[in-house]
Design goal:
Blueprint: H1 8-17, H2 19-35, H3 45-56, H4 61-72, E1 80-87, E2 93-100, H5 103-115, E3 120-122, E4 131-140, H6 144-153, E5 160-164, E6 167-172, H7 177-186, E7 194-201, H8 209-224, E8 228-233
Antiparallel strand pairs: 1-2, 1-3, 2-8, 4-6, 4-7, 5-6
Helix pairs in contact: 2-3, 2-4
Organism: Compostibacillus humi
Protein name: Probable transcriptional regulatory protein GCM10010978_25400
Main location: cytoplasm
Length: about 240
Protein backbone atom coordinates (compact mmCIF):
# COMPACT_ATOMS: atom_id res chain seq x y z
CA UNK A 1 0.00 0.00 0.00
CA UNK A 2 1.26 3.45 -0.80
CA UNK A 3 2.29 5.33 2.33
CA UNK A 4 1.29 8.77 1.11
CA UNK A 5 -2.16 9.99 2.10
CA UNK A 6 -2.72 11.47 -1.33
CA UNK A 7 -6.18 12.86 -0.66
CA UNK A 8 -5.59 15.35 2.18
CA UNK A 9 -4.41 18.33 0.18
CA UNK A 10 -6.57 17.52 -2.81
CA UNK A 11 -9.78 17.18 -0.81
CA UNK A 12 -9.15 20.24 1.31
CA UNK A 13 -8.43 22.32 -1.80
CA UNK A 14 -11.61 21.01 -3.38
CA UNK A 15 -13.57 21.86 -0.25
CA UNK A 16 -12.33 25.43 -0.26
CA UNK A 17 -13.17 25.80 -3.94
CA UNK A 18 -16.83 24.89 -3.65
CA UNK A 19 -18.08 24.48 -0.10
CA UNK A 20 -21.75 24.62 -1.11
CA UNK A 21 -21.33 21.51 -3.25
CA UNK A 22 -19.51 19.67 -0.48
CA UNK A 23 -22.25 20.59 1.99
CA UNK A 24 -24.95 19.35 -0.40
CA UNK A 25 -23.17 16.02 -0.74
CA UNK A 26 -22.89 15.65 3.03
CA UNK A 27 -26.54 16.57 3.42
CA UNK A 28 -27.50 13.69 1.16
CA UNK A 29 -25.11 11.25 2.84
CA UNK A 30 -26.33 12.17 6.32
CA UNK A 31 -29.96 11.80 5.21
CA UNK A 32 -29.33 8.35 3.73
CA UNK A 33 -27.41 7.12 6.79
CA UNK A 34 -30.13 8.38 9.14
CA UNK A 35 -32.96 7.04 6.95
CA UNK A 36 -31.46 3.56 6.80
CA UNK A 37 -31.15 3.35 10.58
CA UNK A 38 -31.87 5.39 13.65
CA UNK A 39 -31.41 9.17 13.28
CA UNK A 40 -29.40 9.05 16.52
CA UNK A 41 -25.62 8.67 15.94
CA UNK A 42 -25.24 6.83 19.24
CA UNK A 43 -27.54 4.14 17.88
CA UNK A 44 -26.39 4.28 14.27
CA UNK A 45 -22.67 3.67 13.70
CA UNK A 46 -22.85 4.52 10.00
CA UNK A 47 -24.43 7.88 10.76
CA UNK A 48 -21.90 8.50 13.51
CA UNK A 49 -19.05 7.95 11.07
CA UNK A 50 -20.58 10.28 8.48
CA UNK A 51 -21.03 13.00 11.11
CA UNK A 52 -17.43 12.62 12.27
CA UNK A 53 -16.24 13.03 8.69
CA UNK A 54 -18.50 16.04 8.25
CA UNK A 55 -16.71 17.71 11.16
CA UNK A 56 -13.39 17.51 9.31
CA UNK A 57 -14.97 19.49 6.47
CA UNK A 58 -16.51 22.04 8.85
CA UNK A 59 -20.04 21.26 7.67
CA UNK A 60 -22.34 23.76 9.44
CA UNK A 61 -24.69 22.51 12.13
CA UNK A 62 -27.78 23.73 10.27
CA UNK A 63 -26.87 21.53 7.27
CA UNK A 64 -26.56 18.50 9.54
CA UNK A 65 -29.73 19.28 11.48
CA UNK A 66 -31.74 19.82 8.30
CA UNK A 67 -30.67 16.43 6.91
CA UNK A 68 -31.50 14.68 10.20
CA UNK A 69 -34.91 16.33 10.42
CA UNK A 70 -35.62 15.36 6.83
CA UNK A 71 -34.80 11.73 7.67
CA UNK A 72 -37.18 11.84 10.65
CA UNK A 73 -40.01 13.21 8.55
CA UNK A 74 -42.35 11.73 5.99
CA UNK A 75 -39.98 12.32 3.08
CA UNK A 76 -39.33 9.06 1.30
CA UNK A 77 -36.49 9.78 -1.10
CA UNK A 78 -34.63 6.60 -1.91
CA UNK A 79 -30.96 6.58 -2.84
CA UNK A 80 -28.85 3.62 -3.87
CA UNK A 81 -25.10 3.29 -3.47
CA UNK A 82 -23.22 2.56 -6.68
CA UNK A 83 -19.52 2.25 -7.43
CA UNK A 84 -18.05 2.95 -10.85
CA UNK A 85 -14.51 2.12 -11.89
CA UNK A 86 -12.46 3.44 -14.75
CA UNK A 87 -9.17 4.55 -16.20
CA UNK A 88 -7.74 8.00 -16.78
CA UNK A 89 -4.72 9.18 -18.80
CA UNK A 90 -1.62 6.94 -18.86
CA UNK A 91 -3.26 4.07 -17.03
CA UNK A 92 -4.32 6.06 -13.97
CA UNK A 93 -7.07 4.34 -12.01
CA UNK A 94 -10.20 5.95 -10.61
CA UNK A 95 -13.03 4.80 -8.35
CA UNK A 96 -16.26 6.78 -8.18
CA UNK A 97 -18.79 6.25 -5.38
CA UNK A 98 -22.26 7.67 -5.85
CA UNK A 99 -25.59 7.98 -4.06
CA UNK A 100 -28.33 8.16 -6.63
CA UNK A 101 -32.10 8.02 -7.06
CA UNK A 102 -31.68 7.43 -10.79
CA UNK A 103 -29.08 4.81 -11.66
CA UNK A 104 -29.39 5.24 -15.41
CA UNK A 105 -28.79 8.99 -15.18
CA UNK A 106 -25.79 8.62 -12.90
CA UNK A 107 -24.17 5.87 -14.95
CA UNK A 108 -24.62 7.92 -18.11
CA UNK A 109 -23.12 11.04 -16.52
CA UNK A 110 -20.11 9.17 -15.11
CA UNK A 111 -19.50 7.39 -18.41
CA UNK A 112 -19.69 10.70 -20.28
CA UNK A 113 -17.26 12.32 -17.83
CA UNK A 114 -14.71 9.59 -18.49
CA UNK A 115 -15.25 9.52 -22.24
CA UNK A 116 -15.00 13.29 -22.76
CA UNK A 117 -11.89 13.72 -20.61
CA UNK A 118 -9.41 11.13 -21.81
CA UNK A 119 -10.66 8.18 -19.80
CA UNK A 120 -12.89 5.18 -20.13
CA UNK A 121 -15.21 3.22 -17.87
CA UNK A 122 -14.20 -0.23 -16.73
CA UNK A 123 -16.23 -3.15 -15.50
CA UNK A 124 -16.84 -3.81 -11.82
CA UNK A 125 -13.60 -4.98 -10.20
CA UNK A 126 -11.33 -3.75 -12.98
CA UNK A 127 -9.78 -1.11 -10.74
CA UNK A 128 -10.82 -1.72 -7.13
CA UNK A 129 -8.49 -4.71 -6.73
CA UNK A 130 -5.60 -2.22 -6.83
CA UNK A 131 -6.96 -0.35 -3.80
CA UNK A 132 -7.39 -1.25 -0.14
CA UNK A 133 -10.43 -0.19 1.86
CA UNK A 134 -8.90 1.64 4.81
CA UNK A 135 -9.89 3.60 7.90
CA UNK A 136 -7.86 6.81 7.81
CA UNK A 137 -7.24 9.32 10.59
CA UNK A 138 -5.21 12.50 10.49
CA UNK A 139 -4.01 14.10 13.74
CA UNK A 140 -2.30 17.46 13.62
CA UNK A 141 0.56 18.28 15.99
CA UNK A 142 1.10 14.70 17.17
CA UNK A 143 4.12 12.52 16.47
CA UNK A 144 3.49 9.23 14.71
CA UNK A 145 5.54 7.35 17.33
CA UNK A 146 3.38 8.75 20.13
CA UNK A 147 0.19 7.72 18.34
CA UNK A 148 1.59 4.23 17.73
CA UNK A 149 2.47 3.83 21.41
CA UNK A 150 -0.98 5.02 22.43
CA UNK A 151 -2.74 2.52 20.18
CA UNK A 152 -0.43 -0.33 21.21
CA UNK A 153 -1.37 0.32 24.83
CA UNK A 154 -4.98 -0.23 23.79
CA UNK A 155 -4.04 -3.48 21.99
CA UNK A 156 -5.07 -2.02 18.64
CA UNK A 157 -3.19 -3.12 15.57
CA UNK A 158 -2.98 -0.70 12.66
CA UNK A 159 -1.67 -1.06 9.12
CA UNK A 160 0.59 1.95 9.13
CA UNK A 161 1.36 5.21 10.95
CA UNK A 162 3.46 7.94 9.40
CA UNK A 163 3.80 11.71 9.27
CA UNK A 164 3.02 14.01 6.36
CA UNK A 165 3.26 17.81 6.50
CA UNK A 166 3.01 17.89 10.29
CA UNK A 167 0.05 15.51 10.40
CA UNK A 168 0.22 12.00 11.86
CA UNK A 169 -1.65 9.64 9.54
CA UNK A 170 -3.11 6.37 10.80
CA UNK A 171 -4.17 3.56 8.44
CA UNK A 172 -6.33 0.88 10.06
CA UNK A 173 -8.67 -1.91 9.05
CA UNK A 174 -12.15 -0.60 8.16
CA UNK A 175 -13.81 -2.57 10.94
CA UNK A 176 -11.45 -0.92 13.44
CA UNK A 177 -12.63 2.61 12.63
CA UNK A 178 -14.68 3.16 15.77
CA UNK A 179 -12.23 1.38 18.09
CA UNK A 180 -9.29 3.45 16.88
CA UNK A 181 -11.27 6.67 16.99
CA UNK A 182 -12.49 6.01 20.53
CA UNK A 183 -8.95 5.22 21.67
CA UNK A 184 -7.68 8.48 20.21
CA UNK A 185 -10.54 10.46 21.74
CA UNK A 186 -9.99 8.85 25.13
CA UNK A 187 -6.37 10.00 24.91
CA UNK A 188 -7.56 13.59 24.59
CA UNK A 189 -7.50 13.95 20.80
CA UNK A 190 -10.70 15.83 20.00
CA UNK A 191 -10.02 17.08 16.48
CA UNK A 192 -9.09 15.17 13.33
CA UNK A 193 -7.99 16.57 9.99
CA UNK A 194 -9.22 13.32 8.45
CA UNK A 195 -11.55 10.69 9.91
CA UNK A 196 -13.10 8.48 7.26
CA UNK A 197 -13.14 5.25 5.33
CA UNK A 198 -11.20 5.55 2.09
CA UNK A 199 -9.79 3.53 -0.77
CA UNK A 200 -5.99 3.72 -0.69
CA UNK A 201 -4.06 2.74 -3.84
CA UNK A 202 -1.57 -0.07 -3.47
CA UNK A 203 0.72 1.75 -5.89
CA UNK A 204 0.77 5.34 -7.12
CA UNK A 205 1.60 6.72 -10.53
CA UNK A 206 3.05 10.11 -11.43
CA UNK A 207 1.61 12.13 -14.30
CA UNK A 208 3.00 15.24 -15.94
CA UNK A 209 2.26 17.69 -18.74
CA UNK A 210 -0.89 17.12 -20.79
CA UNK A 211 -1.63 13.84 -19.02
CA UNK A 212 -1.71 15.57 -15.63
CA UNK A 213 -3.84 18.44 -16.94
CA UNK A 214 -6.32 16.02 -18.48
CA UNK A 215 -6.43 13.89 -15.34
CA UNK A 216 -7.15 16.91 -13.13
CA UNK A 217 -9.92 18.01 -15.49
CA UNK A 218 -11.44 14.52 -15.38
CA UNK A 219 -11.40 14.51 -11.57
CA UNK A 220 -12.96 17.99 -11.48
CA UNK A 221 -15.78 16.93 -13.80
CA UNK A 222 -16.48 13.78 -11.79
CA UNK A 223 -16.47 15.71 -8.51
CA UNK A 224 -18.93 18.21 -9.95
CA UNK A 225 -21.55 15.53 -10.65
CA UNK A 226 -24.45 15.88 -8.23
CA UNK A 227 -24.72 12.16 -7.45
CA UNK A 228 -21.00 11.59 -6.88
CA UNK A 229 -19.97 11.42 -3.24
CA UNK A 230 -16.34 10.29 -3.40
CA UNK A 231 -13.64 9.98 -6.03
CA UNK A 232 -10.50 7.94 -5.33
CA UNK A 233 -7.48 7.58 -7.58
CA UNK A 234 -3.90 6.31 -7.69
CA UNK A 235 -2.19 9.49 -8.92
CA UNK A 236 0.43 11.27 -6.82
CA UNK A 237 -1.04 14.79 -6.80
CA UNK A 238 1.92 16.51 -5.10
Amino acid sequence: MGRKWQNIKYKKAEKDKNTSRIYAKFGREIYVAAKHGEPDPELNQTLKMVLERAKTYNVPKHIIDRALEKAKGATDENYDEHRYEGFGPSGSMIIVDALTNNVNRTASEVRAAFGKNGGNMGVSGSVSYMFDATAVFGIEGKAADDILELLMEEDLDVRDIFEEDGIAIVYAEPDQFHAVQEALKNAGIAEFTVAELSMIPKNEVALSGDDLDQFEKLIDVLEELEDVQQVYHNVDVD
